[in-house]
Amino acid sequence: MRLDKLLANMGYGSRKEVKQLLKQKAVTVDDDYVKDAALHVDPDKQVVAVYGEHVVYTEFVYFMMNKPPGVISATEDLREETVIDLLEPLHQHFQPFPVGRLDKDTEGLLLLTNDGVLAHNLLSPKKHVPKVYYAQIDGVVTAEDAEKFAAGVELDDGYLTKPGKLVILRSAQQSEIELTIQEGKFHQVKRMFEAVGKHVTYLKRLSMGSLTLDDSLALGEYRALTPEELDHLQSQQ
């Protein structure tokens, strides 16, 4: 890979700005100062440094976010704050995108990456990747509702959902549940409850496949996936 491309990809500026770094003798390859922007380097075998700091080349990034309400699951929007706006500029540089969408008022686990293959496999209906949600429901959720969800319910547009596993945590006028589904239709959880005459008042995604929301992440916070988390996700492909 060309040296200027590597450094630009890692957030050290535009190609023009990288050339300025080279002129300033800020860049070394294997401890030798380099001025040639077109020099080809192998980041796996050679040590590239800027002002003495080792540049670890990364092609893909994987972030777990605890998405807050009021933020949309999009890469950009002229009017609304997006989940990408919550990232540090260096992380935005990698152009990650949300894997699937959470509604604007929905909280919880959101995976952001620039790995299109992983994203496609996690979202593909053929992969049957389970997603677990916690919800608070206006209305008494019953065992009959759980049976209906297990059989699949018909949404307002006539679509019949795949079977969902509904676990009732608290059955009352304000019920609490956990729901596992393998799809991601628009407003699906809310529409499934509307199909049985109930209303979702609070919704939070807890997990997606093997990836479970880190309880230590406050709303709006995010972190890189651990190697173990990434390995488990990739093994689901």
TrEMBL record:
Broad class of enzyme this protein falls into: isomerase
CDD domains for this protein: PseudoU_synth_RsuA (cd02553), S4 (cd00165)
Keywords carried by this UniProt record: Isomerase, RNA-binding
Superkingdom as given in the UniProt entry: Bacteria
Keyword Nucleotide-binding: no
Pfam families from the UniProt entry: PseudoU_synth_2 (PF00849), S4 (PF01479)
Tagged with keyword Isomerase: yes
Species this chain originates from: Lysinibacillus macroides
E.C. number(s) listed in UniProt: 5.4.99.-
Protein name: Pseudouridine synthase
